[in-house]
């Protein structure tokens, strides 16, 4: 995965080849090394941002009774590498109530 970064802040993640071609039309037909194409572009020089490779951490084990994945990734710099981790959120009270009701319904004779 790739991300667009400026001054250590994530501007867009994921950042893909269609984003590159939208911002840097001159990059079309010059290959597919997204990092090199963006970082050598006039747009990069004007904007002062860069495109970096982001390593995605493995999907972690989690307790589905208390949290659920949001579908989003949190991208940050760690030990001089850009890392993406999965974002989870706690279940709402409504979701917990629905899960309890479903469990009770399955157990009822």
Structure description:
With 109 residues, this protein is of the alpha+beta class. It has one domain (2-107). It is 31% helix and 34% strand. It contains four helices and six strands, in the order ββαααββββα. The strands form two sheets. It has a three-stranded antiparallel sheet. The protein has a three-stranded mixed sheet with strand order 4-6-5, with no helix packed on it. The longest helix has 15 residues, at 93-107. The chain is elongated, with a radius of gyration of 20 Å.
What is the end-to-end distance? 50 Å
As a percent range, the share of helical residues equals: 25-40%
Mean pLDDT: 86
Low-pLDDT stretches: none
Percent strand equals 25-35%
By DSSP (H or I, 4+ residues per run), the number of helices equals 4
Strand order of the largest sheet: 2-1-3
Net shape: elongated
According to DSSP, the number of beta strands is: 6
The SS-based structural class is alpha+beta
Quick one: biggest sheet? 3 strands, antiparallel
Oligomer: single chain
Q: What Rg do the Cα atoms give?
A: 20 Å
> What order do the helices and strands follow?
EEHHHEEEEH
Features of this protein?
109 residues; 34% strand; elongated; three-stranded mixed sheet; 4 helices; alpha+beta
Please describe the topology of this protein.
Elements: E1 2-6, E2 9-12, H1 17-23, H2 34-39, H3 42-47, E3 50-53, E4 55-56, E5 67-78, E6 81-90, H4 93-107
Parallel strand pairs: 4-6
Antiparallel strand pairs: 1-2, 1-3, 5-6
Tell me briefly what this model is:
The chain is an alpha+beta fold.
């Amino acid at each position: 995965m790739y991300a667009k970064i400026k001054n250590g802040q994530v501007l867009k993640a994921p950042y893909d080849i269609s984003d590159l071609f939208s911002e840097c039309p001159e990059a079309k037909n010059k290959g597919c090394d997204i990092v090199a194409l963006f970082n050598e572009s006039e747009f990069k020089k004007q904007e002062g941002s860069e495109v970096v490779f982001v390593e995605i951490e493995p999907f972690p084990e989690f307790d589905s009774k208390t949290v659920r994945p949001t579908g989003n990734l949190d991208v940050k710099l760690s030990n001089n590498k850009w890392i993406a981790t999965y974002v989870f959120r706690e279940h709402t009270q409504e979701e917990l109530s629905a899960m309890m009701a479903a469990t009770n319904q399955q157990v009822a004779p």
